[in-house]
Specification:
Structural class: mainly alpha
Largest sheet: none
Helix content: 25-40%
Order of helices and strands: HH
Oligomer: single chain
Number of helices: 2
Strand content: under 5%
Radius of gyration: 22 Å
Length: about 50
């Protein structure tokens, strides 16, 4: 007997997403850190950064 297997196109693989706190600790052991993107910047700072 042979079994037929149909591919399910709706099936999506879950992507691995690490716990952010564990990831930050792991990076700190390597002497690295994530960029702080949560910092509020003034309009003047943003204009200075993106000025061409």
């Amino acid at each position: 007997m042979s079994h037929t297997v149909s591919k399910n196109s709706n099936h999506r693989k879950e992507r691995f997403a690490p716990n952010i706190q564990n990831y930050e600790v792991s990076l700190s052991y390597e002497g690295l850190e994530l960029k702080k993107t949560n910092e509020r910047k003034t309009i003047v700072d943003l204009k200075r950064k993106y000025a061409r």
